Amino acid sequence: MNPSGTDQPRLDFVQCLDARGLHRMAYWQWGDPANPRVLVCVHGLARQGRDFDTLARALCADYRVVCPDVVGRGRSDWLADPMGYQIPNYVADMVALLARLDAKTLHWVGTSMGGLIGIGLASLAGNPVERLVLNDVGPVGSPAFVERIKTYLGVPVRWKTVDEAAAALRAISQGFGPHSDEQWLALTRPQLAADGDGYKPHYDPAVATPIRALTPEMLKAGEAGLWRAYDAVRCATLLVRGEQSDLLTRETALAMTQRGPKARLVEFAGVGHAPTFVAPDQVAAVREFLLAP
Q: Which of 221, 224, 256, 260 has CB 3.0 to 4.6 Å from 231, enough for a Cys bridge?
C-alpha cells in the first residue's frame, strides 16, 4: 500500500528547457513525499510512467518512487521540434527533475530507452546515481529491432474499445512475456488517450521521427559513444535481460559484466524485450538488488 494513504500515485509536473522554449514533464510519485531515498523508474520508447505501478507498489514503503512520463509520452507535453526526441535531451530533462526531487539517495531503474537515459546520466561526472538497473538494453543496437519498431511506432491507429486496444498492443508486445488478462489491461489503460468515442496511443507520433532516420550504419557509429558512456558508469549495476530479447544479445550482456561497472546479470526465461516487472520473480530480483546492504 502507498504510505501516502492511497493505492494510486500522485501526479506532478516539472518545467524543462528545450531548443524552442519550455515544456512540462509529468511524473508520478508513490510513497512518502518527504522520503530522502528516491527511486526513479523510466520507461521504454513508446510507453509511459504507469508501466511501473506494480514495482512502485512493492517498493514505495522503502523509497519515494518517481516514474516520469518522458516528454512526448503520457501526460507530458509534446515537443515543437520532433528531432528533440533524443537521449541527450531526455537526460537534460531528468537533471531538471532531480533538482526538483532533491534526493539524498538516488537509485534508477530504466527499461530500454529509460536504461539508455540512465547510462547517460550515470556516466556524468558528479552524478548522484548510486544503484542502476538496466532493463534489457545496452550499448549495442540491433538493426532488426529498429526495423521492427518502425512498422508500428508513430503509425496512425485508433481503437473503438479498451479491449480492442489491449489486443492490438499485445500483438506487438509479445516480448513482454506472459501476462494475465487483468495484468495486461492494467498495462494498457494508461497507454490510451481518449479520441472522440474511441482511443489512440498516448504519445506523440513524432517520437518516431528520429527513429525513422536511423540506419544500420548510424547505429554502428553510435556504439563507440555508448560504450564510452557505459564504461564511465561507476555505480553498482544490475543488468536484466529477457532470454529471448531481440535487442540485447547475450554476447553484449556478457560484455557488460566484464567492463564498465561490471554489471550483475539476471535473465528471465520466456521473456524477450522487455521484462515488465509485473511478475513476482522480476520484482523480487530488482528489490533484492536495490535494497541489498
A: 260
